[in-house]
Amino acid sequence: MEVTVTVNGEQVTRDIEPALLLVHFIRDTLGLTGTHWGCDTSNCGACVVLLDGRPVKSCTTLAASCDGHEIRTIESLEVNGRLDPVQQGFHEEHGLQCGFCTPGMIMTARALLDENPDPSEAEIRTAISGSICRCTGYANIVRAVRWAAEHESAESRR
Amino acid sequence: MATTAAKETPIGHGNMKRKEDARFIRGQGKYLDDIVLPGMLHGAVLRSPYAHARIVSIDTSAALAHPKVHRVITAKDLETLGLAWMPTISYDSQAVLAGDKVRFQGQEVAFVIAEDRYSARDALPLIDVEYDPLPAVVNARKALDPDAPLIRDDKPDQTDNLATPLWEAGRAEECEHVFAEADTVVSRDMIYPRCHPAPLETCGMIADMDPETGQLDIYNGNQAPNLHRTVYAQVAGLPEHMIRIMTNDIGGGFGNKVPVYPGYVCTIVGSIVTGKPVKWVEDRSENLMSTGFARDYVMSGRICAKDGKITGVQVDVIADHGAFDSTAQPSKFPAGFFHVFAGSYDLEAAHCSVKAVYTNKAPGGVAYRCSFRVTEAIYLTERLVGELALKMEVDPTELRLRSFIRPEQFPYENKTGWTYDSGEYEKTMREAMRIAGYDELRKEQAERRERGELMGIGVSFFTEVVGAGPKKHMDILGQGMADGCDLRVHASGKAVLSISAQTQGQAHETTFAQIVAEELGISPDDIQVRHGDTDRTPFGLGTYGSRSTPVSGAAAAVAARRVRDKARLIAAGMLETSPEDLVWEKGRWSVRGDPEKNATIDQIAEAAYGDAPLPEGLEGGLDGQSVYDPPNLTYPCGGYICVVDIDPDTAEVKLRRFIAVDDCGVRINPMVVDGQVMGGLAEGVGIALMELISFDEQGNCLNGSLMDYLIPTALECPDWELGATVTPCPHHPIGAKGVGESATNGSPPAIVNAVCDALYQSHGVAHIDMPLTPARVWAAMQGKAEPPQ
Amino acid sequence: MQTPGPIEYERATTVHNAIELLEKYGPETRILAGGHSLLPMMKLRLANPERLIDINELDELSYIREADGEIRIGAMTRHRELLESELLTRHFPIFVDAETVIADPPVRNRGTIGGSLAQADAAEDLSAVCSALKANVVIAGSGGERVVSMEDFHVGPYMTAIQDAEVLTEIRLPVRAGGGSAHEKVERRAGDWAIVAVSAALWMEGGRIADAGVALSAAGPTTVHATRSEGLLRGEDPSEELFAQAGALASEDCSPTADGRGPVDYKRHLAGVLTKRALGRAAERASNRGG
Asked: Which of B81, B192, B389, B773 could disulfide-link B396, Cβ–Cβ 3.0 to 4.6 Å?
């Protein structure tokens, strides 16, 4: 069957099998391997992307269900060589080690800040509670999101 | 991407931001499943649903009839290649694909190769295997019962389920004497339950055998690429120099990516028989049910004190190794470094015995940041000390402070054969107490107790032993545990450092650059660290057991110093003076007393390749090479304090605060060190409170998914409070000790100690086996505590 | 990662169309809503439908509104929308309690109330919530609509009153004066299934309990409706002792099984403790609203 999805701002049409999961559509069909997978039971959050602006687990979504909808992946954040403040924040605050959970965490954080530009630590921890990190112990990820929140509002104030 | 402003970027050690971040924050990391080769096929493993069963027949015809399936490999096929069984790192043998019997649920039975991953998965149920189930044994103690089912009937001389004979360290007689003389003795059976490193990226491989040239390219995120290459060469009879292993980026290792798994061997065979690249990536249930688990130590320990000081610790262990003995540790140490359980205390006696058993469970045991069983050792001792303090009605920090090895006693030979390098334990412990506001916490606890509230303060202090290790004592599969390092400074003054360590997130691209920067004064931004490719990096035993900094880091410093020494000779020629007249300041050699006359490293590098003649006897280029054989291991330590609040009705344990002070000697990059600690602390929370791999009586694994194997989220972890003391390692070139596993070692006993501290007075709870789930804590509060499984 | 087997896929254009398609293709066809129960089962090959009818485009089923003395929730309303609905929170704060501890935020962006109720997992929180709130559900088939009480809706483990070629379309919560509600859950880790969870609702009149709803998750083969507890509470003055007694009855009447989350005695204990707590909070909320 054919699906047409807007991916990172661009409309793409592909012929797929109905059973194809969104995560495999993104990774294998489109070659966007920044989105990862880490489990079988929708627990780990490595596969989080934005579907119509909201974080979803792409391993538990059919590509077919996304026909006519909009997907944003980690690859969409850097624009014209400029990093998104969330990406920069993860770098500034050492919010990543192996990097495997990072795209899911960053996309979740991006969606959070889009809705809530000044989240508390508790709100950040809740927002990322669907993503598991084995490396960082989370504290620096929280700092990374706070860094982005502070620098984003500073920028928009200019 | 610029890292930081030039003046903020340290030349050498310091809080430098990571160079490797650039690709990861953009989603441009290259992990195994990201790699696609032209014509690549996909593999999938059929696994046994039974823990113990004879294989009656395997019918692959329906699977082969699937239009997208290319091959199905079974044990019969592997037998013709002599690969149905493979040797393990512990000198046992492990089935690659089960032929006669399956011996654990999840064991590999067949390997399907198909066009794409969905077809490979669809073909698995088409393979028809007839099993004849056998009784299973999944309890380590029961495995030694005379009527327990015999698991390893494939081994001709095996008549029981003993995997390794009894191994001992320390002196039993001395212990008897010391315990007899003691004022207080605490005995405790405890289990360090089976858990799993569960890195976020599962294991997998792409094997690409070129039938024309015989070159085997392997893409595989493993922690010891050179060692793996040696294993494949030995096992498959392929020439080692024709095997290239490329690790690229690894999504977490934690020891899970040390072993050679049957899936890897099948993937290689798959490529050989199809003539195409074959990719196999396991799913999460395969990872949890069949790859290297951690711990599963059944321990019977006791501790004693005299005149207020800890005087003896003794423990007997039954180690559950699963169906095959594939534990990874230096060959002369079948119980790894468990015998460092003598810990941080100036004991009069210590003794341990360890024997390993087979059970119908997945093979493994040494993993999950355990430093070769040091996690088990530290847990045992710190839990015994915790209980001893409760029984003696003495403050747990006080008991430890009285019993610590003192700074002037270093290098300290402990009672089980280890020589600790350095440590200032009291200083480290007191720093933790200071950060915690320990006295205020005890006051608060007293107040809360009056109100019937259950607040607990747990302490743990640990001495780790890492950085394996001196070749004369330590080898794996006959490969001495020395690591190589190659440094090349180009004419531009920029450098490439090739290392044998294998990062899985530990920031080697940054920290190793910093090591060289510190020695040579070249900016770390100008030092490219190369790793993870056996064709382009020197031989070494890889990264686990926190050995990267102690061994490879030392190698890097030594190689850099050799470069510096050569630079001195070149500079002497350039400055027309003798090398003895030159002094070094970071980045240049200058004439003693005449600093204006100098040669910077840039200038020296240029001269090394230039056309002007070099001093007599000196060849061109500016390279340094080393193979570092460490003179000893290193002994990082730490003092941890944890505060918990327990809901008296639901028994839920809430972790309020966690204070961790680590002493890992010189800290190359404190930001990276802290990151390693925080990650380890989160693992400790998981292990102490929720992680468990358990089985029912039939041997069914009950925690084969992340829905049942619970890993902490951001909501279970507090904001960590970290501190540091620095006691340099006297034998390491830069005084560093390594820290990667410290926090995973020290945190679980701190948490369990905190819970017992909360419940001892009110409920008489002196011990609860992990994981401390609400149900298990509640049972303990009712006086009904039982070990897990 | 595990992958689903081959399937056929179609999108429903309306509820009526969904019913038609279910009739046309027969029982090997399943409705795909949020997919966070069905797709994981398909990946693990525990569910192997031949065809999926995707109803995610049916905006007509996505609403929370007040009508005829009821709050009516469309079956496709996402968990997140339930959590954020000011209207729902005002009348039934129990939904905030429950949604805060259901799964995690990305899953809540996709999972739906209809999907959760239809899955009928005994450990599922919203079933207990709706049961305590005396909800009715609307099931649509080719013959029209029928309204079913929560008691009649939950037939057994993973079994509901929804027949072949029927679709759950709406949940109806009666609005009555003097109401307060709360949900209490104990879990081993954020996002986990409940070890036990209790939903409690009270309707107060003149300081007395006029009506009560108490239901338990993960305490039996299906959602446990604590009828004896409710009977005890009706007509009484609210008090801690009363709520403890109601808890004791719930503890006796539920039928938990031992599993990885806990043994039977602990679960019974939690049933008692959480019933008491949920009733206490429900009463507080009812009095805050002037009940």
From this structure: B389
> What are B110-146's pLDDT values in tens digits?
999 999 999 999 999 999 999 999 999 999 999 999 9
Min Cα distance A71 → chain C (Å) is 14
Q: Which of B2, B1, B8, B6 is nearest to B671 (CA)?
A: B8
B295: left (phi over 0), alpha (psi -120 to 50) or beta: left
Is B369 assigned a catalytic role?
yes
Residues of B with Cβ-Cβ distance to A142 under 8 angstroms: 714, 719
End-to-end Cα separation, chain B, in angstroms: 51
One of 3.40.50.2300, 3.30.365.10, 2.60.40.420, 3.10.180.10 is the CATH number of B379-467+633-781, namely 3.30.365.10
Rounded distance, CA B451 to CA B568, Å? 71
B482-628: which CATH topology?
Aldehyde Oxidoreductase; domain 4 (3.30.365)
Residue range C179-288 in CATH 3.30.390.50: yes
C168 bridge partner residues = C139
CA distance B36 to chain A (A): 9
Question: Where are the domains positioned within chain A?
Answer: 2-76, 85-157
Give the architecture (CATH level 2) of C62-174.
2-Layer Sandwich (3.30)
Please indicate whether, in this complex, the C-beta atoms of B713 and C269 are within 8 angstroms of each other. no
**Per-residue pLDDT, C289:** 79
Contact C103 A60 (CB under 8 A): no
Q: Does A123 contact B at CB distance below 8 Å?
A: no
Confidence of residue B10 (pLDDT cuts 50, 70, 90): low
With tokens 């890993």, the residue in question is B711
- Among the residue ranges B609-613, B771-775, C6-10, the one predicted with the least confidence is B609-613
Which residues neighbour C239 within 8 Å (Cβ) at sequence distance 6 or greater?
A: none
The reply to whether residue A132 touches residue B706, judged by beta carbons under 8 angstroms, is yes
pLDDT at B120: 97
Q: What is the pLDDT of residues B62-111, one digit of tens each?
A: 999 999 999 999 999 999 999 999 999 899 999 999 999 999 999 999 99
Contact A94 B706 (CB under 8 A): no
Domain boundaries, chain C: 8-47, 62-174, 179-288
Distance CA B109, CA C183 (A): 47
Q: What DSSP designation does B368 have?
A: S
Query: Are B679 and A135 in contact (CB < 8 Å)?
Result: yes
* Whole-structure pTM value: 0.97
Q: Do B121 and C269 touch (CB under 8 A)?
A: no
Which pLDDT tens digit goes with each residue over B24-54? Answer: 999 999 999 999 999 999 999 999 999 999 9
- State the Cα–Cα distance between residues B686 and B680, nearest whole angstrom: 10
Q: Where are the beta strands (DSSP E) in B122-161?
A: 128-133
pLDDT tens, C47-105? 999 999 999 999 999 999 999 999 999 999 999 999 999 999 999 999 999 999 999 99
Is residue B741 part of the annotated active site? The answer reads yes
The answer, yes or no, to whether residue C37 has pLDDT greater than 70, is: yes
Residues of B in contact with C273 (CB under 8 A): 649-650
**Which chain C residues are closer than 8 Å to A67 by Cβ?**
11
Above pLDDT 90, what percent of chain B? 96
Chain B residues with CB-CB distance to C191 below 8 A? 713
**Residue of chain A minimizing CA distance to C7:** A19
Q: Is B430 a catalytic residue?
A: no
**Is the pLDDT confidence value at B280 over 60?**
yes
Of A92, A101, A140, the CB nearest to B200: A101
Fold of C8-47: 3.30.43
* The CATH number of domain A85-157, selected from 1.10.150.120, 3.30.450.30, 3.20.20.370, 3.40.47.10: 1.10.150.120
Domain B37-134+202-250+257-290 has CATH 3.40.640.10: no
CATH architecture of A2-76: Roll (3.10)
Chain B residues closer than 8 Å to A138 by CB: 678, 682, 713-714, 717
B453 is catalytic: no
CA distance A158 to chain C (A): 32
Helix B670-689 to helix A139-157 angle (10° resolution) is 130
Half-sphere exposure of C48 (CA within 13 A, CB side): 7
User: Distance (Å) from the C-alpha of residue B528 to the closest C-alpha of chain A?
Assistant: 18
